[in-house]
Specification:
The complex is a heterodimer. Chain A has 14 helices and 21 strands. Chain A is 45% helix and 22% strand. Chain A is rod-shaped. Chain B has six helices and five strands; from the N terminus they run βαβααβαβαβα. In chain B, helix 1 links the parallel strand 1 and strand 2. The chains are: A alpha+beta, B alpha/beta.
Chain lengths: 627, 130
């Protein structure tokens, strides 16, 4: 297993932090120690001065007993180890420890070093130079400070033991204080600092570990897992977008990428499916039509000549009938394979409708079906491919006849002019989130049209909503119902980017709106309050109503179930069982799409079906240029 | 008039034989060819009353054969046969001067009806032209 990036990161930062904190602790401890000793030295110096002043009189009068007692009293204080005075020659003249009086110290000894280090005595070096620390015999550490006793006029004048006036230093007061307390405090603060340092290192480490998990390792692992899933072929993978930093951006980009891949794959699969069917159909047609011609010709020829032999005649009729069924299947496949761009010409759709009816009349025994034609006489010519539109109408009429079945019923074919206002008619054929994820959902359809999928959230609940792709219509599809009148946020279901617009408000209820990037990158917005019917497609509203010709095929047959309705236009979906190829409406859909028209189906089970095809009077310029 | 009444050009033997069988039963004499060049070179091409020609021949398109036949013998009814029947093909066949169009697979009745219609129409067309 590879080393995890988070662990490496924590290790590196942890080591750096430990070293830094360790160094800091060491420097702090040293400084602290130095300061405490300096402070103690100051106190000791003050003490020395106090001792000198308080013993001045006794010194002048050379009252050695009193002096000794005083020194002993001072040294009685616990923290003071020893107080002594020695003369210039280094002989101890007074001491709180009486036993050492009269002993001579070497000039190299601890007490003398400060002044004599330079080879000559100094009058009064600064405090820090007069201080030394050392360890005494019983093992504890002490601080000694020497303080020269300066010659004064009173000293040279004194009757008793007058000093010579040219002497500058008469002797040295040497005070030794215990470092026990200081050492104890230093140990205590060392322990405290080390403790704190350990806590800081461990704490920083834990914090780093946690942060790295949340900010780096977690998202990176999610990305890695997502990538592995995508590599394994699962293109529905999305990973949570964790923040607005680079990893969040990466996650969004990743989601957008899988969305695009998935869409591309879907289209490829669809195209591939269609292309394979096309190739297969062409091959099958070629190979099968010739033998079928042989079978059909001979069988029908023989059937006509065997009316005298009913048994044989019936058998031959079966062969003829079944061969003709084969023929229909092959033709269906060929029609499907042969979806070509429309060859537009100025077309009278009434003429096309009449031809379609003629074809249907020829093909079907319509005895039990009453077909009514209601063709508007003010129809304008439409830029369309008459053959393809005829195919559409034939298909719709045959479906209607199938839906009526043996019970009998009526089919009504209507043509009329219409001004198609965008609302309630114009299909939103393109929808993206701000990150470019395709929001069209071909798996969830309304009236055969792919819905626009958004993620709604309200009160901690989350549900996907398939927006009705027909602008101004609100037959949204949702697996979950949500009470009306609440403001539910909307986001991209793939990358979870919000679709809510900060500057827009619903003109009906004032709630915030959400929008998708529609055709030509123009926004289409809806009110985010559930149940509020506000929607606005600025770009489309500006263009106004479009003149169209409507072709309606209505029947009072058995109708289509709610479950089947959304799948109606999918290739290979059929409600006719073995009799259908599932290609008719897929072809119809493709043709109407190719004309820039719309097709929608309304149906009620048991009541009938109404299919409406709207064809634009003028072909869209863009499509014409592309064709 | 001597020689075959109908020339069938199709690369598929079963189609040629089936047509010969059905039309033969109606007293029509049928000649056959298995490719475009062979059909055009066939003596019957100059004498027959009707040509049935497949749209997809191994050596050339049925539309080419049709054009050549019509160029040589204006008014000769030519019926195109194809396994790829579309409204579009039908329209193009008519534009190219075909008398009719027969989609495979056809049954005996469709074949006979088409042949009768083509023969009758060509007769009336000739009269109209004359």
């Amino acid at each position: 297993m590879h080393t995890r990036i988070g662990l490496q990161f924590v290790a590196v930062v942890g080591i750096v932090t430990s070293v830094a904190i360790g160094l800091l602790a060491m420097v702090t401890l040293r400084t602290h120690r130095r300061e405490m000793i300096a402070q103690l030295a100051q106190s000791a110096d003050l003490l020395s001065e106090t001792v000198k002043r308080s013993t001045e009189d006794d010194m002048l009068e050379n009252r050695r007993d009193r002096l000794r007692r005083q020194l002993e009293a001072i040294a009685g204080e616990k923290r003071i180890e020893r107080v002594r005075v020695f003369n210039k020659e280094g002989r101890i003249v007074l001491s709180s420890d009486g036993s050492e009086v009269g002993r001579a110290l070497d000039k190299g000894a601890e007490s003398c070093f400060a002044c004599h280090a330079q080879g000559r005595p100094l009058e009064k070096p600064p405090v820090q130079e007069r201080v030394r620390t050392f360890t005494v015999a019983d093992g504890h550490r002490v601080l000694g400070i020497v303080s020269p006793i300066q010659n004064q006029e009173s000293c040279t004048n004194a009757a008793c033991h007058a000093h010579a006036p040219d002497e500058s230093v008469l002797g040295v007061l040497d005070v030794t204080v215990s470092l026990d307390e200081v050492d104890r405090q230093i140990v205590a603060s060392r322990n405290r600092i080390v403790g704190l340092a350990v806590v800081a290192v461990v704490g920083t480490g834990l914090l780093l570990w946690w942060l790295s998990r949340h900010l780096i390792t977690g998202p990176v692992e999610a990305l890695a897992a997502g990538t592995r899933r995508v590599a394994a072929g699962d293109l529905t993978t999305t990973i949570p977008v964790t923040g607005r930093h680079e990893l969040g951006e990466l996650a969004s980009a990743f989601n957008a990428m899988t969305a695009r891949l998935s869409e591309a794959q879907r289209q490829l699969t669809q195209a591939d499916k269609l292309a394979s069917v096309g190739r297969l159909a062409a091959g099958v047609a070629h190979e099968i039509n010739n033998p079928l011609t042989g079978v059909l010709t001979y069988a029908s020829f023989l059937a006509d000549r065997t009316s005298a032999d009913p048994e044989l005649h019936t058998d031959l009729e079966v062969i003829v009938r079944e061969t003709k069924r084969c023929r229909e299947i092959v033709r269906g496949l060929l029609d499907f394979a042969r979806q070509t761009p429309p060859r537009r010409q100025s077309t009278d759709l009434n003429e096309v409708a009449r031809r379609a009816v003629a074809v249907v009349m020829n093909q079907l025994q319509l005895g039990h079906v009453a077909l009514t034609l209601d063709l508007a006489d003010d129809l304008v010519p439409v830029e369309a491919d008459p053959n393809q539109i005829q195919q559409v109408l034939v298909n719709l009429l045959l479906n209607a006849a199938d839906a009526i079945g043996e019970r009998g019923g009526t089919i009504r074919l209507t043509s009329r002019r219409a001004e198609l206002p965008p609302r309630g008619h114009e299909q939103i054929r393109h929808a993206e989130c701000p990150h470019g994820c395709d929001l069209l959902d071909p798996t969830t359809r309304v009236g055969g049209l792919p819905t626009i999928r958004v993620l709604r959230t309200h009160g901690g609940r989350e549900w996907t909503l398939g927006l009705d792709p027909v602008y101004g219509r609100f037959n949204h599809v949702s697996a979950e119902s949500c009470e009306e009148g609440v403001i539910a946020l909307a986001a991209c279901p793939r990358c979870r980017t919000t679709l809510v617009e900060s500057e827009q408000r619903c003109t009906l209820c004032g709630a915030p709106t959400f929008a998708v990037r529609g055709p030509d990158d123009q926004p289409v917005r809806w009110c985010s309050r559930t149940g509020c019917h506000h929607t606005w497609w600025e770009a489309r509203e500006r263009r106004g109503a479009a003149p169209v010709v409507e072709l309606l095929v209505e029947d009072n047959g058995r109708g289509i179930s709610r479950e089947a309705l959304p799948k109606l236009f999918e290739p290979f979906f059929t409600t006719k069982g073995a009799r259908g190829t599932g290609l008719g409406l897929a072809i119809t859909w493709g043709i109407v799409e190719g004309h820039g028209g719309t097709i929608d189906v309304e149906s009620e089970e048991g009541r009938g079906t109404r299919v409406r095809v709207c064809l634009p009077v003028a072909a869209p310029d863009r499509r014409r240029a592309a064709a | 008039m001597t020689g075959p009444d109908v020339l069938v050009i199709d690369d598929e033997p079963v189609v040629r034989e089936a047509v010969r069988h059905v039309l033969g039963a109606q007293g029509l004499e049928v000649a056959t060819a298995d490719a475009g060049a062979a059909g055009l070179a066939h003596p019957a091409a100059a004498t027959c009353r009707l040509v049935l020609c497949d749209l997809m021949l191994p050596d050339r398109s049925g539309l080419d054969v049709l054009a050549e036949l019509v160029r040589r013998r204006p008014g000769l009814p030519v019926v195109l046969i194809t396994g790829y029947a579309t409204l579009d093909h039908r329209a193009r066949a008519r534009d190219a001067g075909a008398a009719d169009f027969l989609a495979k697979p056809f049954d005996a009745k469709e074949l006979l009806d088409t042949v009768r219609r083509a023969l009758t129409c060509s007769g009336s067309t000739k009269e109209g032209n004359a």
